[in-house]
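User: Show me a protein chain along with its predicted structure.
Assistant: Here is one chain, sequence first, then structure tokens.
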Amino acid sequence: MKTKLGLLYGGKSAEHKVSLQTAFAVIKALNLEKFEVYPIYINTQGQWIKGPQLVEPAKDVKELEFSNGNELSPMALASTLFQSEKNDAQLDVIFPLLHGPNGEDGTVQGLLELLNLPYVGNGVLASAAGMDKVVMKNIFAQAGLAQVNYVAFIRSEWEKAKTDAYQTVENELGYPCFVKPANLGSSVGISKCTNRAELEAAFAEAFQFDRKVIIEEGVIAREVEVAVLGNDEPQCSVAGEIVPKKDFYDYKAKYEDESTVLIIPADIKKEEYAQIQETAIKAFKALDCSGLVRADFFLTKDGKALINEVNTMPGFTPVSMFPLLWKETGLDYPSLIERLVSLAIERHAEKQRIKYTV
């Protein structure tokens, strides 16, 4: 019997286009002999539109942007959205291919929890904490994980005392530093600053995308990443290194500039990989992650691995780092998707063991 798989993608987010690319890649890779695939598109206005069952892979990303179909209000979601074509059976598992706020941040995961549906990836807590870089780094600090120094501000306190905010950054971090929206991925809204003028512009840029920003100390280091897969017993892939031609791995470098070099496996020492692997798994467990994360590190010249962040829904096209790392480890893209679906069902079954009555 085929697994009824709902693909949830798009979203009211600055990473909407990234999500579409991810969904397109997953659909092309899915074995339709094993899965009944139902696309569920969230447009940029936040409307949810359920398309018909896919009988063949989409030929173009634009085919996934439904302008009509079964449009649903939030009140109708539970009764009709997550059912199969004839509305006579609930879907077996949902794959949220959403990046950024209103998708990767625990909001959709909360809905799926309420509906008691199996879904791929991290739960509410891990998704929310992993999306908010300030909360994530605070948890890492509590877990004793080595990371760069950082400070954070919310928009209202910055607007009341901008000069004080800039002075705090200069006193505690110095230059260079990086200003980032706290709740966004894909390197959207990130700026590198080497002086006060750039810092002022970076604050204004980052606050366009979030009410909270984080500023991190700049370090001279290599950018190394590992992919983590699993539930209670997570495993790490080989390590990969990112060598951007620009100052840092920004949105254009990730999705538009083909000059960025990905070195897989990374040329690092065994003890450096062991340190990265151990820290990645500790970070995974500290956030109570499940399914998948990509863990990003700075590797200094003296061999110290500083965790930068984890991404609870990393880029997931065949040329994204997460699938490439697993391909090099021995798990190809279609098999990786099937493994994630299996982990989702496994985790859901484990949750059903919880007792809800006294």
